[in-house]
Every structure is written in structure tokens, then in C-alpha cells.
Amino acid sequence: MDQRIEPLIRNLQKRNIPAVYCSDKDSAALKVAAMVPQECTVGISGSVTLDQLGIVRRLEARGNQVFNQYKPGISRDENLLLRRQGASADYFLASANAISEKGELVFLSGYGNRTAGITYASAVIVVCGINKITATREEAFKRAREYATPLNCKRLGNWHTPCLADGICRQEICFPPEYRRMCAQVLVIEAEVVPERLKVVLVGENLGF
Ligand code: SF4
Fold it and tell me: How many whole angstroms from 134 Cα to the centroid of ligand 1?
């Protein structure tokens, strides 16, 4: 196991955020499925990590109602409705853009369903590959803005941002109408008040951006 994992789990626990370790994405998918009761509704945030786990298919196949805004063929209005429903589902699943070794979780969001779900859903599971661990909070922001966001802009194809071309964040000019700012909302989770509300699944392989 990566030597950063055990101290990170302890640092998360100090912040009232229980964390578990899974060695690979398949065991992480099993772990997440076991953490979500079958009768619960589930919201998701856009995440390559969750796609790699195949968690939506797994939960839907066994009967969970998943508010999946990425279902092919749906209208923009349906997409927005599913985002709203997902943010108030029984469980909300997400990945962090970065997590510092001290246990600070950094998330960027465009529409805000992601930040809404993470901050206020009754139960939240954050899945995080080992590639998202950074030494400091500052490096977590750098990773989120100069690595993850440009790749997500490329992946999704409909986000015109200054960082798209060269990976350099120019947040001082990244506003409409010239640009469609992907990281419109910034969330750092430093601690959790409600016991067991927010949990982290750390995965011992590279997942997502
Ligand atoms: S603020 Fe704009 S330029 Fe900076 S990372 Fe976010 S989308 Fe890219």
C-alpha cells in the first residue's frame, strides 16, 4: 500500500470523515455498492472515476433508482431535473478533484449540483484514486485547476475555457460571455459535522483525472 494512505485515513478520521482503502477499482465498486442500501435513491456527479467503477450500472441493475443526468437522449430540461433530484437523493456519489495529505477535499463544479449534493445530501460517498492525493492544499487547487479541469473540458467538448488550449488557468478572465467557466464553484471540505454522513473510499490505483 502507498505509504501516504494510512496517515491520510487518520487525518480524515480526525475531520470526522471515515475512510476505507480498496486496492483496485473492482473492489472499490463492490465496497460502494455495499455501502448504499438497495432501496435508496442515488445522485451522481460527473466523474470519470465513477464511470471507471461502473457503479451506476451496478446499482441500477440491482434496483436502485439512480438520477443519472448523463443518460443518452435526454433533453436539457430532463438533464437539469435529474441534477436537482440527484442533489437531494438519499445517497450522493462523487469523486474529488484532489485530496491533500492532511485530508482536505477539493471539488470544482460548474452547475452546482455537485457541490449541493456533497455539502447537504443525507449520505455522501467520495471515491478517490491514488493519483488525486497531493502534498498540500495549494497543490490540490493547482491539480484541480491546471490538470483536471483542462482534461475535463476536452473530455466533455462543450466548455470553452482559457485553460482548454494550454492548461493554464486564467481565472481573472474566465467569465461569460467570452468563456464558459467550468469551475464556477469551489468547495473545500475541511471537516464533517454529522457523524458518518460523508465517507471516503480511497483506491490504490489511478482513476479519473
Ligand atoms: S477558472 Fe477557467 S481557466 Fe481556470 S481552471 Fe477554471 S475553467 Fe479553466
Answer: 19
